[in-house]
Amino acid sequence: MAEYSKKVLTELNRLKKTAFKAAQDTELNALYREFEKWKKKRIGSDRMEQIINGYKGFRKETLEKQYQEDGDPGIPVADALIRGLIKKEDLSDEAYKSIEILVDLVNI
After folding, report:
1. 10 Å Cβ neighbour count for 94?
2. Distance (Å, rounded) from C-alpha 20 to C-alpha 11?
3. Among residues 8, 18, 3, 4, which one has the least CA distance to residue 93?
4. Which of 38, 60, 71, 108 has the CA that lies 20 to 30 A from 102?
5. CA distances from 26 to 3, 75, 104 (A)
6. Whole-angstrom distance, CA of residue 43 vs CA of residue 89
7. Rounded to whole angstroms, how far apart are CA atoms 87 and 28?
8. C-alpha distances in angstroms, 97 versus 5, 12, 67, 71, 92?
9. Do 4 and 11 touch, CB atoms closer than 8 A?
């Protein structure tokens, strides 16, 4: 894990949690829209089950791995910036400078 000041580490951990919730909300909203299609009989039960299993896979593979407690908080924050889940303005200048290289790497 990169070396962060205590202040920046606290900020990145807070933003990591914010980004996790935003990513989760995005996925749950997409899942909700699929449930609405199923409810209106526009997709079948088999397809709905596949969609649910896909969400479970996304949650386990992406959310839980990327936002794990003991991981570098700069990585998910950089990813969240690229994906638009949080804004650059949400970070202090010091925090952004500490993860700027990660933002560049994630953006590749």
Report:
1. 12
2. 14
3. 8
4. 60
5. 31, 19, 23
6. 40
7. 21
8. 12, 12, 20, 19, 9
9. no
Q: What is the pLDDT of residue 62?
A: 66
Domain boundaries, the chain: 6-107
Dmax (CA) for the chain in angstroms is: 53
Low-confidence stretches of the chain (pLDDT beneath 70): 1, 60-69, 108
* Type of residue found at 60: K
Question: Structure tokens of 5?
Answer: 């000041």
Rounded distance between C-alpha atoms, residue 88 and residue 78, angstroms? 10
Classify 91 in phi/psi space as left (phi over 0), alpha (psi -120 to 50) or beta: beta
